[in-house]
Amino acid sequence: MFFQQKEGGKMADSDRDPAFALSADFMNFSPRDAASRWLAAPDLQVEVYRHLATYVPRILCQGPHGGSGSREEQREELACQLMLLAPLEWLLLGEEPAAGLALLQENNLSSPLCGHVFKVGEPTYSCRECAADPTCVLCMQCFLVSVHRHHRYRMTTSGGGGFCDCGDTEAWKTGPYCQKHTPADRSREAEEDPVSLLPPDMVARSYSIFSIILKYAVDLLTWDQEDQLPAGLEPPERGDTYYCMLFNDEVHTYEQVIYTLQKAVNCSQKEAVSFATTVDRDGRKSVRFGDRQFCEQAKSIIVRNTSRQSKPLRVQVMHSSVVAHQCFALKALSWLGQIIQYSDGLKRILCQVGLQKGPEGENSSLVDRLMLNDSKMWKGARNIYHQLLMNSLLMDLKFKKIFAIQFAKNYERLQSDYIRDDHDREFSITDLSVQVFTVPSLARMLMVEENLMMTIIRTFVDQLRHRDPQGRFQFDRYTAQQAFKFGRVQSLIGDLKYVLISPPPEWSDQLRLKFLDGFDAFLDLLRCMQGMDPVVRQVGQHIEMEPEWEAAFTLQMKLTHIISMIQEWCCTDERVLIEAYKKCLSALSQCHAGLSDGEQPISLSLAGHCVDTFRYQVSQEKVSIHLPVCRLLAGLHVLLSRTEVASRFPEQLPLGELSPHLLIELPLRCLVLCAQVHAGMWRRNGFSLINQIYYYHNVKCRVEMFDKDVVMLQVGASMMDPNHFLMIVLSRFELFHIFSSVDIRKRYREANKDLAQQNTLIEEMLHLIIMVVGERYLPGVGQVEPLDEVRREILHQLSIRPMAHSELVKALPENGNKETGLERVIDSVALFKKPGVTGRGLYELRPEWSKHFNLYFHHYSRADQSKAEEAQRKLRRQNAEDTALPPPLPPPLCPLFGSLVNLLQCDVLLAVEGAVLQWAVEPSGGGWTESMLQRVLHLVGMALLEEQQQLENSSGDDDVSFRYSSKIARPGDAPSTSGSVLALLESLQNAPHLEVHKDMITWILKMVGNIKTARERTSSSGSVNVNQSRGPEETLRDKDKAERKRKAEMARLRREKIMAQMSEMQKHFINENKELFQQSMEDLEASTSTAEHSPPSSEVTCASQVCVGPRRMGGAERRQLVTCILCQEEQEVRGLGRAMVLAAFIQRSTVLSKNRSRGFPDPEHHDPLFMHPDLSVGTHTASCGHIMHAACWQRYFEAVTQKEQRRQQRLRGHTSYDVENGEFLCPLCECLSNTVIPLLPHTPSPDHSVEHPSLEAWLSRTSQQVAVLISAHRKLSPGAAQEAEPVVPEGFRVDFVPQNPFSSSVSEMINTFCMSAYKVGLKVNPNEQDPRVPVLSWSTCAYTMQSIERLLMDEKKPLFGSLPCRQDDCLSSLTRFSSACWTSASLRTVHSHFIRLLAVLVPNSQVEDTPCILNMDMFHLLVYSVLSYSSVHSLDQSGRSSVDSAHLHLLHLITVAHLVQILLTFTTDEVCMDQDGEESEEEALTLQLYLSLREHLGSALPEVSSGWQLWRCVKAGILPFLRTAALFFHYLNSSAPPADLLGTGAGQWEALCSYLSLPSNLLLLYQSQRTLLEPLIHRWCCDPGVGQVLQGGGVLVRFPRESNRLINLPEDYSVLINQASSFTCPRSGGDKSRAPTLCLVCGCMLCSQSYCCQTEVDGEDVGACTAHTFTCGAGVGLFLRVRESQVLFVAGKTKGCFYPPPYLDDYGETDQGLKRGNPLHLCSERYRKIERLWRQHGIAEVIGHAQEANQTLVAIDWQHL
Ligand SMILES: [Zn+2]
Ligand SMILES: [Zn+2]
Ligand SMILES: [Zn+2]
Ligand SMILES: [Zn+2]
Ligand SMILES: [Zn+2]
Ligand SMILES: [Zn+2]
Ligand SMILES: [Zn+2]
């Protein structure tokens, strides 16, 4: 053996066939006897162990293959069952296992828990209305019979693991049971112990068997010796047989492992791939079997090879018996899992056994041992025992609780094991937390008894040890290992989320205590975050290195929901809230300790007010964005207000200890930082800071960051003198000096460079004040409900523009349950607009809501704000309203925040307002900005609204303390000594430079007036109904509005009148100049490429339009003028002129294939002359219809090629087209092209001077000509035998060389397209000498026409006149090209093609390899023979024959052949309904022909008695042929179509026949030439091929061929997901496929994007999809990636794109990636659109456009999908 010599080791003796050695035992073994022997033994365990010790190594130690290979596996499985498991079953049941288990199951009360364990990719359903949390899911079977099917549900695909929660009453708020799992008697099930239902002796036996087997399994799975076994299991005979076991890790890549294995164990790549796949799946795999030394060798090579960059792969050399027992241990665990499925009693016994404390006390139960050793086990072992835990402990409500306690007790240890382990969490025992902690009652029990909340948080904090001197987390110094750990430790936050997800319905003292313990721990965590990652403004130089910021934000993001949840918990209990508030406050003061130390105290004074603070500048000192402690306090403070705890228990609250100055300090700094960043002051601090600011405002973080900072300012401002608050704000914004200086205008004179910066800062500060006073939609701050907040968010999103559901969802914050509340309010604020075939459904704001629009909505970014402003102003103009956007009416504040409004009327703000208005008196010049003014006007408006509202709600003027309107009437205080705010406003109203603000100022002044009137009225009449006071304003506005509307209406009417007048004038003009018009229309037609598209009506009405034969009408006399798109020069199309070409794309196609199993022919030897009627592969040509000079195109293409070469040198960028394959983009429309079609002149009109010979005469003359040609060819080939010279017909000159009718440039282009068709059609390299060249050109003409005919037919469009210009042009030039392409090939080649083609119709003994008529597509035959005939005709110099006669005869002959073909394939499958009444002539003749066919073929044809059905079948079967033939001759001879064929009305058949010069009773063709045709028909039928096909020896195609469609897709997307989840990879036995992908053409499911299914195509490994396209779609493919819900288009190996799937949710949106999980349903319009793309051969073009639009698509390795 090769191995032995090379490695010097020894393979284990494989001559001892273990199966053979076993078989004797196998035959004699009786499980029943074994069981009774064990039962009698004194010590059951000793006995069982002895049995296992003997048999396990013999059965499961199967040598080198280790039980792989299906036969060996089966034998092993069988032996295991019979010799190891069956005795256990006998012992357990005391009878025949099958019977015993059935009885058990029968007596078992069905469990209300479904517990179905999910496979990877299986669909899971969660109810968004009823699920306790998003982790509660149902399996598909349960879901379909549950109430939630009619609720709002979410669908996802399972990642594997986890189980169906059906039947768990805690998981569902309503409807916990599906129909299947509804318990019959709910009262009983809870109390009764299922064990008591089992016979007592069985209970006893089960205890002992379960403990023996479970202990055995646990011992072995946790066993760490490589060479020894536990006591009692040592094998009786021990050989030197070892395994070299390779273990999985998550460090090494597939490639590394494969490469190493090939080296180490000398295996093929394929074996190595299989090893690697198994290691990845099961966690370990033996890669070598043999003696110890042999295995050690392999081990050392593997270790050596993988230790270079990282820690080496784990390899162990293990004795074969150890491995065998470990294998059996896994089987035993699975067995236990199966057995307990039969009985809840047994399940409970197993639970008891598993959780029973062992002799070592605490944590010594078998389950504990498994858990604690989890991280040491290999993946396969973990999977199996996790599965068992799920099937047993987690299914038994009583034991789930005990298990939960053990799990919580071991929590810290399990987590630290996991954090060190390198396996993903799904393979870790810690992943079970989702099963345990999400049960709310369990979670609370664990909190109370095991202090779970604190444990989790402490464990988390302990893992992050790296801190700065202040004890804060410091992530920037993390090593890779610490970063890894940080990644892992985040899952603990997930656990915490499970625990907190539902607030308790009631609190016990214990729970309060433990929650507050947890809260303390949480505050510790937050304190470590407070002030993290501080930044200092960089001046001078740019920062050198971007500081780390992501870790801190990751943490913040993960904690966001936790913080919110903790607040929700606090909200449900007053005592907890008060305690938590106190704790949080004291934590904050600890953080603040030392805050103002060393700061220099200063005193500020402005507008007569004075405040003490200290000097601090954000722009110069450290500042941090992370302030979680402050923000939690802000949240709790709002809760105090919301729950009214603040007003009911003020004595219990430490409100007095609050120092508002300190509360606002840090949040204010943070907000100022943002303002300064906006103002561009922090540019040198790099992207890190920009990103942080972005996330600070982002929807994922803002709830617990930005929003809370604003709240904290509101808290502070509500407790302070508003003037003091504003002065501090001004000072922190570093703007105080501007507003406090005596001469404000000094600012102008300074003209310092920071003016723009300062302007932005002022704007930001004004905006902040607007937010502090105006943002009241948080319950507790304002008097609103939670849903009001959501509604307001939506309103402001939709004020920007209409949005899709998913966009709105993204813009709203989600709660811990992943809900936004959107669906509950959306319909009240928005209207839904359904999507069309593209795009998505959109929500539009209901018009009545736009009055709530607030331009300074706090969640708008600057960009949002300006877009919204523009949209709203536009809307108002459209409604003919004024364009002022005044502030909306805000909701009232809660009492605790009531004093906030005073900010609006405080002196400092008035001073600021006055100052800005004062500046605005003069045009800006950079000294002030419109935004600034706009904000001031907004603030003024807010104040006036407030005053108005207070007036309305008060009983009299006296108690309205808000007197803004009178304050602004006063002249300004120092330092602004100028006029009053009101006076300033009045003077600004008509300032020309403030035109945009005019409407707003007018609005303000009106408000002032109204308030004044109201006040006057109240003071005069005492109490008043203020609604009246709004009256005048309202009516004034109404009047205004009405006036504008009237004006708009007038304008509209005027416009309409003018339009009408104009069109009237045009009509007159046309009538008067009719002739002129017609002429210019005709010119137009001639000069554009649409020339023949709509033929003049005079021709159409002509009675007998004929397109073929000597009577045909030609359009040849018309000149063709075309314009080159590149040089814009006009050119006439002439054969001898400059060549003009049409950009075209040619590709292979299987769209029409009726036989996808036919392999692709060998390109070198394939004979394409005879197209099989299954049309399995063809060549399709399309064009965008753009015309160029050939020379212009060549220059363009050269430039493209050169550019591509330069690009490749630079190695940058990609192109969507492949220049090397001749691809380019049309220079005008960028349509993907790969060749050009030359434009050729029309066929000349028929020569009426020559007579039209009869069919007989023509046939005989042609036969003579053929005979002459054959003989001439024979003479040319060497060694030909001499034969009698055939008679040469008169005027036929074999040696004649016809003159080439084309100029060299036209010939060259003919050649170019010929080569493209040849190259693409056969997939070969160009070869001009190949005789097959002309055939491929004819072929693409025929195939393209067939495919277009099918489309027209299926879309019920008329045959003529409905094609788009580009297709019309393409077909016309393609046909004329094909008729000319023989000129570029050798005459002899074309002659021999014609000879062979004719032989199909007129059998000729001198021609070989002629297919029978059943194997011939008649349209291809027609096209080929008509086009090749010209070459024969060219030799006929007699002047007595015309090509047209020949065409007509060929058409007639082939039509008859097709009739025969259809009748031969006729089937009586259809329900036969004999027609009553007279048989028509057609029917009689059809029957006659059929009967004569039966004479030839006998019983191979079914018996038919009436001609009615036959004729119907013939008529339907031949129609496509006639239609394509009509298209063909129409384009060939440029003959105008008859009027009937321009529509789809009645008379189509007759029109078609007459157009083709055929009798409408086609049978007359046969009848009239019977004597001539009968012998031919006889010979057709007698071809042995016919009999063979009819007897099933070939592909039988029936006519009409049914059009191909894409496969049917299910209406409900989850059906597809379900299908895909049970799909396994066809190559790696039974593995789940990671990316199941459905071929939409043939319905084949593929294992895409995976190593296992790569195939070699043309010497390159490609993925399953690409490989499939080569067999199914000739290189083009359409797929549905099921897990991603994405359509994939691929073309060739390098091109592809994704396309929206035809599945939509109820909001009219697709869900690519299945991220949202809304139920998806098939949209058949969209699916038909994809189908049409495919049938029109448009896939490659779509890919081209997609790649052109999105360059990243070009870089994707499509071939690996
Ligand atoms: Zn279920
Ligand atoms: Zn169920
Ligand atoms: Zn529901
Ligand atoms: Zn040109
Ligand atoms: Zn184009
Ligand atoms: Zn696969
Ligand atoms: Zn397919």
Rg to the nearest angstrom?
44 Å
* Distinct small molecules: zinc ion
- Distance between the first and last residues' Cα: 40 Å
Q: What is the percentage of strand-forming residues? A: 5-15%
Mean pLDDT: 85
Low-confidence stretches: 1-20, 1022-1034, 1075-1103
Oligomeric state of this protein: single chain
What order do the strands of the largest sheet run in, or round the barrel if closed? 18-17-21-22-23
Task: Please bin the fraction of helical residues.
Answer: 40-55%
Content-based structural category: alpha+beta
The biggest sheet amounts to: 5 strands, antiparallel
Shape: globular
Count of extended strands: 25
DSSP helical segment count: 65
What does this structure look like?
- There is one protein chain.
- By secondary structure, this protein is of the alpha+beta class.
- 51% of the residues lie in helices and 7% in strands.
- It has 65 helices and 25 strands.
- It has a five-stranded antiparallel β-sheet. Strands 4-3-5 form a three-stranded antiparallel β-sheet.
- A hairpin with a 3-residue loop joins strand 22 and strand 23.
- Helix 28 packs across helix 30, helix 52 crosses helix 53 and helix 54 packs antiparallel against helix 56.
- It is globular.
- It binds zinc ion (7 copies).
- The site of one zinc ion has 6 residues, from helix 62.
